[in-house]
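for the writeup, i need someone to sanity check this before i put it in the appendix. the sequnce is what the collaborator sent (i think, or maybe the updated version? ugh). structure was predicted straight from it, no edits. if anything looks off just tell me and ill rerun, i have time this weekend
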Amino acid sequence: MRLSEREHEIVAAGAEAVGMSIAGFLAHSALAAARDLDRTAAVIATQQDTLAALFALQRQLGHANNNLNQAARALNSGTYPEDLDATIAAVHSAVDNLRHAAARLTDPHAERPAA
């Protein structure tokens, strides 16, 4: 089994906290997860939902980037683009959603933003 350095630190800290070896802790945790597949599936589903949200945010920010570049060109030519305020609001919304998604990745019990 391969773990990133950060994942290894988390597992090692968990093992130490309960007085187990890393191998014993991993075995015990895997067996506990296998015995409660509904709960395990719910955690995985939450992570998948969060990853899907992050990919959607990436697309949204790509569109906003394009709109902001067009707005900058218009402003440089002396024109105020009519959709600039909406684009800025969309960027702020994406940033808020990104913060919530990051919080869900680090704390699966974090509250979801209101739709």
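The CA atoms of residues 42 and 78 lie 53 Å apart. The chain is about 80% helix and 0% strand.
thx in advance!!
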